[in-house]
């Protein structure tokens, strides 16, 4: 393989598109509410136009089925939430929740999160970035797929406002240690933990059923919160 044929680690995707089957309700939500909640990755992102107001912007990368994102948005109406997810059933489920609960401060990209952050989000415009329970890619040969890596930190530096934060949570201890080590190398980010390691789960991050079940079984969960200096 020549030098030009080598894969740039910064461009390695941290996910695999899974062909999950959407429920009838999720399909109906996507058919009925797509234009209401979803943004086109082909168009420029204008936060004020998209949400119809100015408010601090929180971006969630990989929101899964959207339960936590819907909960946070409903509990924090003074924030705008931008959820990015590649799996269509999760997008449909979130739209169903937003419509059922009358939640108006969420917009969605069904697209690659890194591409959206790089190409659509204005620098120094994001109040917070959430990454909750990302794929840990636990096999050593797959560690290169983990999203928290030097190129991702560079992206955070560009997009976060001064004082903005990055919050990651994982139930995989090795990944927690890896993220802590990676984030700690960036002098532009300050660990919010007084001990320099992990933070207690903040009230704004709801506990999922999966997480609660794991804790009852003695499994650990680690939260990392770093702010931009």
Automatic annotation (TrEMBL):
Enzyme superclass (EC): transferase
EC number: 2.1.1.33
UniProt keyword Magnesium present: no
InterPro entries recorded: SAM-dependent_MTases_sf, tRNA_(Gua-N-7)_MeTrfase_Trmb, tRNA_methyltr_TrmB_bact
Binding sites annotated in the UniProt record for S-adenosyl-L-methionine: 60, 85, 112, 135
Keywords: Methyltransferase, S-adenosyl-L-methionine, Transferase, tRNA processing
The keyword S-adenosyl-L-methionine appears for this protein: yes
Pfam families attached to this UniProt entry: Methyltransf_4
Catalytic activity: guanosine(46) in tRNA + S-adenosyl-L-methionine = N(7)-methylguanosine(46) in tRNA + S-adenosyl-L-homocysteine
Entries under PROSITE patterns matching the protein: SAM_MT_TRMB
Pathway per the UniProt entry: tRNA modification; N(7)-methylguanine-tRNA biosynthesis
Gene Ontology cellular component annotations, sorted alphabetically: tRNA methyltransferase complex
GO MF term (any one): tRNA (guanine(46)-N7)-methyltransferase activity
Binding site for substrate: 139, 171, 208-211
PANTHER family for the chain: 3-DEOXY-D-MANNO-OCTULOSONIC-ACID TRANSFERASE/TRNA GUANINE-N 7 - -METHYLTRANSFERASE, PENTACOTRIPEPTIDE-REPEAT REGION OF PRORP DOMAIN-CONTAINING PROTEIN
Function: Catalyzes the formation of N(7)-methylguanine at position 46 (m7G46) in tRNA.
Cited HAMAP family: tRNA_methyltr_TrmB
Membership in a protein family: Belongs to the class I-like SAM-binding methyltransferase superfamily. TrmB family.
Protein name: tRNA (guanine-N(7)-)-methyltransferase
Highest classification ranks of the organism: Bacteria, Pseudomonadati, Pseudomonadota, Gammaproteobacteria, Methylococcales
């Amino acid at each position: 393989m020549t030098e030009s044929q080598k894969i740039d680690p910064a461009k390695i995707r941290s996910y695999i598109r899974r062909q999950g089957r959407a429920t009838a309700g999720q399909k109906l939500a996507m058919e009925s509410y797509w234009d209401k909640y979803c943004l086109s990755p082909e168009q420029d992102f204008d936060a004020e136009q998209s949400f119809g107001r100015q408010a601090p912007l929180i971006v969630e990368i990989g929101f899964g089925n959207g339960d936590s994102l819907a909960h946070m948005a409903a509990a924090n109406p003074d924030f705008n939430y931008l959820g990015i997810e590649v799996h269509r059933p999760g997008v449909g489920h979130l739209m169903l929740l937003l419509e059922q609960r009358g939640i108006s401060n969420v917009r969605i990209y069904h697209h690659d999160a890194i591409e959206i952050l790089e190409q659509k989000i204005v620098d120094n415009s994001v109040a917070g970035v959430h990454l909750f329970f990302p794929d840990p890619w636990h096999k050593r040969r797959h560690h290169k797929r983990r999203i928290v890596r030097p190129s991702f930190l560079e992206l955070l530096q560009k997009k976060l406002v001064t004082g903005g934060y990055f919050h990651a949570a994982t139930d995989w201890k090795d990944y927690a240690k890896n993220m802590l080590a990676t984030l700690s190398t960036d002098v532009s980010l300050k660990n919010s933990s007084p001990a320099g390691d992990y933070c207690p789960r903040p009230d704004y991050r709801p506990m999922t059923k999966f997480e609660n079940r794991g804790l009852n079984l003695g499994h650990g969960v680690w939260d990392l919160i770093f702010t931009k200096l």
